[in-house]
Every structure is written in C-alpha cells, then in structure tokens.
Amino acid sequence: MEKLLWCFLILVSFSNMSDQAGMHKKAFVFPKESDNSYVSLNAQLKKPLKAFTVCLYFYTDLSMTRGYSIFSYATRRQFNEILLFWSKDIGYSFSVGGDEIIFKVSDVPVDPTHLCASWESSTGIAELWVDGKPMVRKSLKKGYILGPEASIILGQDQDSFGGSFEKQQSLVGDIGNVNMWDYALSPEEINTVYAGGTFSPNVLDWRELTYQVRGEVHVKPQLWP
Hints:
By secondary structure, the protein is mostly beta strands. The protein has helices spanning 2-19, 187-194; strands at residues 26-30, 38-41, 51-60, 68-74, 82-87, 91-96, 99-103, 113-120, 125-130, 133-134, 138-139, 151-154, 173-181, 211-214, 218-221.
C-alpha cells in the first residue's frame, strides 16, 4: 500500500511540473481586478545583473482608465529593482533600482502590444521599444548593479519583496511571451524578437518557463500572432 501511495505521489508531482513548464503560444489571463491574483516567475539565472532586456506582449483595456503594472522585478534591498508600469495620461514608466524615467506616447495601447525594455549599467542607457519601434533613449541609474535572488511578478506591482499589492495597480487582461536576457539586445535582435524570433533567453525563457499561479489567473491561447 505504501509503495502504491509513493508511486501516486510521484505521478502527481510530474503532472504538476508539466502543467507549469513552458508557455509557447499561450498567455496568462487576469480576468478581473484584484490584490491577490498574480504569477510568480522562476528566473534561470540568480546573480547580480549589470544589464538586461525584457520583452513581452500585453493586452488590456485599462489604459484610458488607470495605471497598471506590466512587469515587476523586486529584490530584498529594492522592490522597484525593475518595474514596467503604464501611467494614465503619462505613458510608460521604466524603473531601475528605484529610479524612474517616463516614455511619453501619443497612442494609448488598445491592441495587443509588444514591449522591449533594455538597460546597461556601464552607460546608464535605457531603451523602450513599442511594437518594434524605438522610443528616444534616456539615461537611468548609471553604474548601478541589480541585486540577486529576485521576485518576478506578473499581474501586480510589488511594494515589498513578493507582496504588498494594490488592487488599483493590478493588470486586467493578458500577458505573454515574457523573455529576459542578462544583456542589452541590439536593435537588430529586438526587431527579430518582435518578428517572432528569439535569442536563447537566459534569465526568463517563455518556452521553458516555470512559474507559480496565485488567485484567479488562467492559461489560454495567446491572442497575438
């Protein structure tokens, strides 16, 4: 009897791993406003970062109503280690190490939108690409190094390490194709990612993603190409 129970537990364990590994052609859906629904992503690399690029798709109808978190990367020393946030009537907020810059846009996102954000410590240059088009480069936190052991959250803005969520900052909609590298992609590489290619992401790889879901979040086919 004990042997049968042991085999059953192993099968359940493998089943759960299969359900939460890899998201190719899928997206996370956050169907309603909340302060307890989110997805925690497991990074492949756990080391200090001197540069990074994050690329993803998101789709929401909140942009004319309020702000919302797009990507939240916290460490124990800084909860806004990396933050991508939409601010109503302002545009995209991009934070590194707690410092923030704003990329103003003329068009409010209403369709599925592709974002790539990159930063490097050596120059402090921060870039934001929206649907394959670059915004004007800006300076942000030159010389800074991101801490290790990150808490990476989709759907909520972390105001502490792994928590302190606010309902009015939550994402309502879809997010997917989240990939992250430990270096700044070139313009040619970002264009390739936007066209559907990839360059072996080494921090977060959507095709081999491992994650934990909390609250009401669903996995559905993606709504973008």
